[in-house]
Specification:
Bound molecules: copper (II) ion
Order of helices and strands: HHHHHH
Shape: elongated
Distance between the termini: 30 Å
Length: 135
């Protein structure tokens, strides 16, 4: 239930952010960066969900499923990292930088890079999660 309310809220926030209001009040460049922000948010969510699966598997409650849970969790964290790299080194980012939208010249791009740094740091910390041994 908690998840359903969360996902409904997320859908509403997403719908509001992509409404005509947003389109009228943001330039195409800002819009591209907001899409990057949403992708970074997604990478964080994916890494967090992966971390939860790893912890669940490490609790050792269902032997046959534990390995699947741990391996899938690790894959989600790897995919989160890979998604982050694709955002920051991808075509859209490169062309914005080429147009002069750099972290020093643009507050929005500066913010995008800050968000990336924070998200990367969070994902790195998640991947160093200590391992518990089942009782
Ligand atoms: Cu950039």
């Amino acid at each position: 239930m908690k998840y359903k309310i969360g996902s409904t809220l997320a859908a509403l926030v997403f719908a509001a952010s992509t409404s005509a209001y947003a389109a009228e009040n943001h330039s195409d460049r800002d819009m591209a960066m907001h899409h990057m922000h949403m992708m970074i948010n997604h990478a964080v969510e994916m890494a967090a969900a992966g971390s939860d699966l790893i912890m669940l598997g490490q609790m050792g409650m269902t032997e046959d499923v534990d390995r699947l849970s741990i391996n899938h969790g690790k894959m989600m964290i790897q995919n989160a990292r890979s998604l982050m790299e694709k955002i920051m080194e991808g075509k859209a980012m490169k062309s914005l930088h080429k147009e002069g939208v750099t972290p020093t010249a643009s507050d929005e791009m500066g913010y995008t890079h800050q968000l990336f740094e924070s998200a990367s740091s969070y994902i790195d910390t998640l991947s160093r999660m200590f391992r518990t041994s089942p009782r």
